[in-house]
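Hey L., structure's done. Input below.
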Amino acid sequence: MPQIGIFIDALQGSIPASFREKISDYVKKLPGIAFCIEEENLASSEALNRMGKRLEAGGLDGVVIMGGSPKLYEASFQKLRHPLPFNPYLFAVANIREQALWMMVEEEAALERAKTIISKTIRAVSNSKPIETQSLPLKPEVLILGGGVTGISIAQELAKSGLHIFLLEKGNHLGGKALELHKFYNRPLEVQKWMDEKISEVKNNPQITLFTHTELKRLDGHLGRFQAKIQGPDRTETVLSVSAIVVATGYAAKRETKGIYSHKRVTVFPEMEKLLSETKGPSLLWDGKKVEMVTYFLDGVNEDIKVDSINAVKQALLLQEAFQCQVAILCKDMKVAADGMERLYRKAREKGVLFFKYEEPPKLSIVNGQIQVDVRDTAAIQKKEQWPVSILSDLVVVGEAFVPAPETESLSGLLKIHLGNRGFLMEDNPQLLRVRSNRRGIFVAGACRFPQEVSESLIEARAAAQEVMALLSKGTYIYDLAVAEVDPKKCAVCYTCPRLCPHSAITVEKYGERNVYIISGTSQETKWGAAKVDPASCYGCGICVAECPAKAITLRHLTDEQIYAQMGLME
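Output:
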């Protein structure tokens, strides 16, 4: 019979002495109990030292802590990092405080509930087995997809730490969408000069191998063993063996060209940025005529993205200060949630930039070769004060729709990472860190995840670089085997588990013995393939266990026997 050690935690008196005494008397009468010890605060370092000395004596098959929430002890053990001489998967916590004592009004009722919790926990521990750890060697090599400002910045950060970087860019040159900018909104540098310096550093860095006009064609393997097949400009293929992958492929922009939006006096932000950078005289000319009134129409597209708001305020100030143009900005909401944007917005108002809020989209019409913009200003709270406004403009600037890059969907299939509702990569990621993907070892950063301003992309690039360095810095990845496991003799090769696995940790390989399903016309010696779980990639979520029609998959840290034992269905 398994020998179980019991520690009862008083939790600094929050479990009364009388209640602990009754629990202790009940536990000592149970079979297979090696000892029952009371502690005042088991989450303290002194109590952990005493526990460690008691466990060193050996002779135990499991340990049960009776006290509060399991999270309390997990957080304490991780914080104190006390090396207990016992396999962590032979520990269990019976939460008799929150789930019994604090739930029931009468102490006797709480005691009966606590006894039920304790008996189930002891049965579960008695059926537990130790689970060990393994290590996976990691080469200091990383593949970065995308040569825009995010990919370049990540490559620079990782190269400083001694990692070797393979930087892939599908176009002929580096820089991406950042090259469409002339000035930053929050720093005095010129974008082109700043980008030229970064590109030069990347090209001259011996730690970075640059591939231009190159695409990813196939990806096999998992964390630490990725095999990436790439195709260059002359259609030659190369296989790169890397430990981690960062996706920073950016986004695309789509311009509306129907109706009045095709008029020569309607333009978009990149064209306006180029005009401002190329005009050196005191006046701004468009189609050979002087521009005196410019209207920005925001939130027609990209309603929840702040890039257009930032560029509109920045360009408005340049227009007024350098060319003495009058500027009006029409928006549903002015988005100033970026570093320094509130100051820039106040400055624009002080300089005379006009801001109008609308609910119904403005109407654009052509009047004597100019664009007339009619809008009802809803900035006033009282509806009776909301007046219609007509603005006769020499130039109207509208936003382009930000859409996923053309290769995003196919790249998602190659990498087996998730797409958001709008087609961007991992744009809605509440369960994982912002730059992590659903696959261990693959990271997503920059505008391929969600369109953003350059300074935000730089912050995300540093975050991605830090995640990669934290993963690869030790040279090995240590993981425990508390993961799903396939019995190849039962596997029907139905492909249910590879299709359902949210982390792409399951593949089908020709390694298993013949499974229990027989197909008419085949010999008895035929060996079938079987699903295989990569333990370094598995998160132990159990979806495959629940869905396997052949019941060929189990969780090593939560077997059917443990569940049945907790339910009292087996002795």
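The chain has a mean pLDDT of 91. Residues 4-131 form a domain with the Rossmann fold fold (CATH 3.40.50).

-- N.
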